[in-house]
Amino acid sequence: MAKVLVTGGAGFMGSHLVRRLLREGYDVVCFDNFSSGRLENIEELLSLPNFKLVRGDLREHKDITNAIKGCSTVFHLAANPEVRIGDPREHFDNNLLASFNLLEAMRRYDVGTIVFASSSTVYGDASILPTPEDYTPLEPISTYGASKLGVEALISAYSHTYGIRGIILRYANVVGPRISRGVVYDFVQKLRRNPKVLEVLGDGLQKKSYIWIEDAIDATMIAWLCSKGIYAVYNVGSEDAIEVQRIAEIVIEEMGLRDVNIYYTGGVDGGRGWKGDVKFMHLDVSRLKALGWAPKFKSEDAIRMTIRWLINS
Q: How many CA atoms does the CB half-sphere of 109 hold within 13 Å?
């Protein structure tokens, strides 16, 4: 079987993708700098003959050169995952600059395909919901979303100029085992610290799509194996959306708590949780469904299963 590289392979989503690829017989090189990835996510894989861990940073040319030789496909999941306001330089260096270095290494060593983990945040405040892939204008409202859109543009250029096959996957909120950030994780942690009060950023009316991790991995594999052409873009999400206030209720219910005071901060810019928070997100996934994929779980199912894993982990 082919040898593939997974950047960010020790992260939440990366560790699930690595396992799927190993199960299907691929030789997998897992590349991670462990800024957000965790060794425990992949520790039991270290002894497998078709798994190799490379500790490295995409900002360093020599690190990626040592990892990419002999690979036919790169699954590019490595990024600064923080969507809230921070240092814009962090998104530029860890998302844009790192991706440029990766693409240059692919060009030099004749790696044929890149599958990129982009984000629904590239759409910004879309006026059409569910939002299709050909929606315009793409106006991200956060530096995180801007960096993801910038990487998409780089991949498009390298695809059309150098013949590298590019597959862009715009994920909704992915949840499941080994998650370590996001609203579901935050709510569980807050209620563990204080089971009487739950602070909710924003007005609670934010409404977004959540997808179970295995559905997202299925979509990733199908897009990689079945898409045609030199460059393709696919939305990956569940077929519904759910409000934050409902997520809060589900977390409280699943944790078996009573008389919890839910406190809404009110947020910014009309009830957003923070500057740059997209308040409403629901993706049209019909393009990917045409390849034979469909999500097995709705947003509420995915959230409940994630909460149960967090409670028992």
A: 21
Query: Full-prediction pTM beyond 0.85?
Result: yes
Is 292 domain-assigned? no
Residue 222 lies in domain: 3-173+210-236
Q: CB of 237 within 8 A of CB of 171? A: yes
Structure token pair of residue 90: 């962090």
- Give me the phi and psi of 302, to 5 degrees please: -60, -40
Of 285, 277, 182, nearest to 233 by C-alpha is 285
Which residue, 173, 81, 75, is CA-closest to 120? 173
The string of pLDDT tens digits covering residues 153-192 is: 999 999 999 999 999 999 999 999 999 999 999 999 999 9
Annotation says 144 is catalytic:
yes
Which is catalytic among the residues 123, 144, 210, 234? 144
Tokens of 171: 């994920």
13 assigned to some structural domain: yes
SS (H, E, C) 119-136: EHHHHECCCCCCECCCCC
Report residue 85's pLDDT band, with 50, 70 and 90 as the boundaries.
Answer: low
Distance CA 149, CA 30 (A): 24
Residues 57 and 187 in one domain: no
212-243 tens-digit pLDDT: 999 999 999 999 999 999 999 999 999 999 99
For residues 125 and 191, state if they share a domain. no
